[in-house]
Design goal:
Chain lengths: 315, 252
Amino acid sequence: MKVLNSEELNRKFQEKIDNDIKIEPNDWMPDAYRQTLIRQISQHAHSEVVGMLPEGNWITRAPNLRRKAVLLAKVQDEAGHGLYLYSATETLGADREDTIDDLHSGKAKYSSIFNYPTLSWADMGAIGWLVDGAAIMNQVPLCRCSYGPYARAMVRVCKEESFHQRQGFEIMMKLANGSPEQKDMAQDALNRFWWPALMMFGPSDDDSPNSQQSMKWKIKRFSNDDLRQQFVDATVAQAALIGLTIPDPDLKFDKKSGHYIFGEINWNEFYEVVKGNGPCNKERIDARRKAKENGLWVREAAMAFSAKRAIKKSA
Amino acid sequence: MTKNEALFNYTLRLGDDSLILGQRLAEWCGHGPILEEDIAITNISLDLIGQATNLLNYAALIENKDRNADNIAFLRLEKEYCNILLVEQLNGDFGDTMMRQFLFDAFRKPLFEMLQFSKDKQLAAIAEKSLKETKYHLKHSSEWIIRLGDGTEESHQRVQNSLTNLWRYTDELFFTDESDTLLGELGIIPDFSKIKEVWSANVTAVFEQATLQIPANNWQFEGGRKGRHSEHMGYLLAELQYMQRAYPNMEW
């Protein structure tokens, strides 16, 4: 068998990508590609898991049985997404517990939006509508990502996210058509979540260090700014439909381009939240760390038990 | 007491047990010992809330007083809830939660197995549907009790403490009063002594595998079925009812 040198391997790898052939776990891949994917997929998994906390905050206070059931189902989906994304990182040779430790130490990031508090029932609507809505914009292109296991996981994730987005919008619609208190609640949630939702697409293209290479590897297909624009264009109309006001005095429709022009994003706030200075960064990580610590004896018991059974079986 | 009154009482009791345990389990969301358990516990909670919805809807229908499942679930006074004390107990650690769940599931499975043959068609249908879920719940909680009991020294000690603390609430699973006697005579609900036989055999077998001891002190509490709850109940209801109390008469 002919042994290929690294230049040839790289060339063949890029050729596959250019021809839209999926890269599978046992295929050769450049180390940087592997590391980029481990970083991106594990951060995506962390976002799903940390994202359970702000919504979990309202399950016990959901206003009726149907809303409680739907919210439980949604949060359960998110835990499921976390699980198969962690599994996708394992196909790349990463260890789930190591990546979780990176989250707890602050080395690994997760979506900044989950560092904002959920203060009212309307926040469940705003999160579904805006946060899951933005996530879909980001994730639909990932269904065609060059790495097979990630792409396939995203097909399922996107189907469920689309339900989540609709249930969020439905909560908002109900509130917006409800009593004055309910409408206020909905508007207040939109005011607090609008800008953080726009930040979910990441820094502007000029300031996005990893974007170029990811585009070449077809991990990323559209730029942050393009996806953000797509989100604004879709969401402004939805807000108008239910009579809520987007909290941006500079927002206006540009006939020439066919897009909405929106105000300046407060990037200072974005970088502060990423650094750990958001309103709930500490609470979120503390909660996750505590869950792991409090569960240690349970995991140890499960390991000890399965070791005992293995001995019994072999005896 | 009329048949309808008895049927209402019974349906409400089953519904409240599901509602309150579902509410308790929901508190675990995002705090489980492993991600798989976050999925399992939210799923069990979801099943219980689903059961509560079916049962309380039926209770509302029997009552025929212009209330629906939501009014019943969210707008009663504490003393009007008739769940057993076991299900309102605090989550504690994972062992406490699994022990509470196991003691409950081991009751619910034979109950639904027998109730699916009820002469009341609606109760029979709810039991048949709930049985499918309950089988999974019992499998899950039994396996954890065995794992924790026969795991490490620490896990054994912890889950033994859970059993010692929660055993006092198990007799109330089999609480009966005149409603139950009437419904039993009409073939609408099964004989509780038969459920107790199956329950006892099952918990004994699982505790044996788990190397756990049923406590010698067999003092038993009751009160929940009569609306006399533990100190924990008011706080649970404060969360459950928060939105309905703060924003009355609104659609969500």
